[in-house]
């Protein structure tokens, strides 16, 4: 009932006197009818007139309340939504193509930048085994970006070059502070991810479930991965966050359009099991004893770096904000990401970043 009243109030506020005139007209007609028919006494005429006055007053009050309600809501939206950075049309690339793995954090860093600056881009999903989509390139890692025919490689270098091309004004951020935290993302934060999303069998399976439900189509069957029996090769292929290949087999399994149902189930459980053991190796490699504690510590370290500001960049995100957000985006709605938000203070910043980055600028390839 309260919702209906608010809607009515908003309607009356928008429609002004029109909303008042209808009931006034009906009440006036009723009063006139009662007088002409001589069926009501003067006392009832007095009651009608006072009721009419009261109704008009209440309607006006509701209109004012509706106006205030609408104004407060609009103000709140204005305060909470951070607009994307506008890039002048003349500075926008004519064609931008990103070669990527969907769940790769380095690719997601680039996408966060492109989405925030609203630079339309096409995506080419790369086969992590054959790399056939990159056969034209000597550089075989992802991300690779083609900008109006020019090749750009390495996520941080890609962002630096694009930023130089599209920015219309100098950044107000402290360049040293920004560089420091971007380096922290690449050297530290990314290494917290795999040990967390694959820390036990249930989370490994959850990760594969999520990836397979968000992926695209591919063509290589899982059993091809381990024909050589080379554990190191499998580890590099399997890990989406480490290794020289920066590769993402879990995502690739999600793009398994040529898998039968049985093969997909086998791939899911085999992949989850493999990544569970890989995550244990990564913990040892990066000297992580408690992966959740390490993730929480990294999140709080980032929040402390903000020093009470909305973003490291101040009132708007800078390149470090976009790097942290891009790397965390693939895990945000997995158990590890949910735990991170529930057990640290990073949630408010992440929500602001979601609003600031907004919808994807991706276009159909």
From TrEMBL:
One of its GO terms (molecular function) is prostaglandin-E synthase activity. It comes from the Eukaryota. Residues 251-365 form the GST C-terminal domain. Its main location: membrane. GO terms for biological process: fatty acid biosynthetic process. GO terms for cellular component: endomembrane system; mitochondrion. Pathway: Lipid metabolism; prostaglandin biosynthesis. It is a single-pass membrane protein. It catalyses: prostaglandin H2 = prostaglandin E2; prostaglandin H2 = (12S)-hydroxy-(5Z,8E,10E)-heptadecatrienoate + malonaldehyde. Its EC number is 5.3.99.3. It is found in: Endomembrane system. Residues 94-170 form the GST N-terminal domain. Keywords: Fatty acid biosynthesis, Fatty acid metabolism, Isomerase, Lipid biosynthesis, Lipid metabolism, Membrane, Prostaglandin biosynthesis, Prostaglandin metabolism, Transmembrane, Transmembrane helix. Pfam families: GST_C, GST_N_3. Belongs to the GST superfamily. This is Prostaglandin E synthase 2. It comes from Anisodus tanguticus. The lineage of its organism: Eukaryota, Viridiplantae, Streptophyta, Embryophyta, Tracheophyta.
